[in-house]
Amino acid sequence: MTAAPRELPPKVTVLSGGVGGARFIQGVQRLRERTGSDTEITVIANTGDDIWLHGLKVCPDLDTVMYTLGDGIDTDRGWGRKDETWHAKEELAAYGVEPTWFGLGDRDLATHLVRTQMLDAGYPLSAVTEALCRRWLAPAHGQGLRLLPMSDDRVETHIVIDDPESGERRAVHFQEYWIRHQAAVPAHSVVAIGADKATPAPGVLEAIAAADLLVIAPSNPYVSIAPILAARGIRDAVAQRSVPCVAVSPLISGRAVKGPADQMLATLAGGTSPKHVARCYEGLIDALVVDESDVLDLEGLGSVRPIVARTLMRDADARRRLAATALGGVPA
Amino acid sequence: MTAAPRELPPKVTVLSGGVGGARFIQGVQRLRERTGSDTEITVIANTGDDIWLHGLKVCPDLDTVMYTLGDGIDTDRGWGRKDETWHAKEELAAYGVEPTWFGLGDRDLATHLVRTQMLDAGYPLSAVTEALCRRWLAPAHGQGLRLLPMSDDRVETHIVIDDPESGERRAVHFQEYWIRHQAAVPAHSVVAIGADKATPAPGVLEAIAAADLLVIAPSNPYVSIAPILAARGIRDAVAQRSVPCVAVSPLISGRAVKGPADQMLATLAGGTSPKHVARCYEGLIDALVVDESDVLDLEGLGSVRPIVARTLMRDADARRRLAATALGGVPA
After folding, report:
1. Which CATH superfamily is domain A11-154+194-328 in?
2. CB B117 to CB A55 under 8 A?
3. Of A37, A232, A217, whose CA–CA distance to A141 is shortest?
């Protein structure tokens, strides 16, 4: 097989949340393989969703990216391991241990055990992630794909809600808002606790500075991307870029494929049009990939150039095509 | 149902290791139920087998007793949970994490997660064990059955072996000797590391002092019972008893039903006859229950009275009969 002419930017850095971001990056990766490109892809993943459960450190977005790219994901759910069983979870519930609303699968548990033990031994999350990726990314993708946590410091995204039981306004962990309450209560605001003191993980600012193209994956602007931008220096690094930055909207006809992005945009941004998405990234993006169903709703984007595409990532081809649009559709 | 006349001693305290001890205690428990007795049974379990694996505190003997009495045990293996799966173990191996020779089942993991999290929160092992037993013992057995770890302090039984690979003499954790090397290498000596500084757990000395009958379960004298006796004050408390103490030999025709007791007695006690078992408990027992197959080999027992019985605990009836022999066959 001969390598096709290099068409992709040599270095692409992607800011990503969980399911949507992981699927998009899988598309980038497939595009890279198909074009025979040696593009270096660096993924900076949100860790604001991270949560300690049953004494274990769980990093949903890192794991979703890792499992998706390493072909270990449950493709139907979009998260967790394929061929998963839930016996430990059943037993934890039988012990009466809270919380019962978050499901750790038996296979998935191994990841959290390895991670927690390494963290306890003093390794930073970035080193742990690198070690875990030796299993998931290195065999399939060689050195061309790196996954970095946004920070080694603890950041927790909390959502201010009115508690459905007590009626009191309180801040709950994003996972509690999303998994336990199924985002059925309005999100009054989002706070990335610890972000103001969080230092970007080793390599993060360097990957932003070295990139030929920055991409914001189709992830929730409030709970997936904002926490990354909130870590010290990351927003400034993106704002001061000398290369293009393109975001992919996570909404199709104003609806999220998965997750509470649409509810949150409606409440917190005042709407779910492309302009509302673009407003979340004010000063940070040059182009916004929007779904073709939103083609009649492209007002108010200002200097952000709309790129219209089919954004539903139903299968591998759709993911690759969306990646090609995002990576090729920017002014070079 | 009317209560049968009380025939069992009101308070029985049993020193126990894992599988053999657990099955024997199940027999005691069934005897208690059948006779309608309100005998209080206190089990003091060995914790010298305990091991930290993948960041989790694993207490094999406590768990074997707990699962056996709570009907959660895999009855064929004698240890671990019934209907168990091994997915987390597979995944840990896929990460290349050592050790791979110790199998933590998915259901079993939940116990270790709960335990580890409670220990991390500052609860002593005895309080953790009490909490876990609320699930396993309380529903089935009410307040009549208590399970205590011998100590809240860390004790680890190590076995001095000649390493089969390097040939060097070294001390390995009992689990490594037994599970990894399958006891296929001679045990030169046994050291209960930490035992000299270990304080008996709350209730242990009290249960020995308050007992109307002390029982040493059919467990390995060297690695199950000796570590219990080695914790500060326990050996003295048994030696200074004013009530009978009966041991049940774990050997049948000089062979262990399970575990390395026979190899260890052969090497460390010079033989596997009843007198060699009795010698392990010198000054501590008044009677020794031996299998009927050993009836021609009862010399050298000194003041220890032999009680001959069928000791193979094949089923519930056999366990109950052996318990009846041990509890009733002592001079009251």
Report:
1. CofD-like domains (3.40.50.10680)
2. yes
3. A37
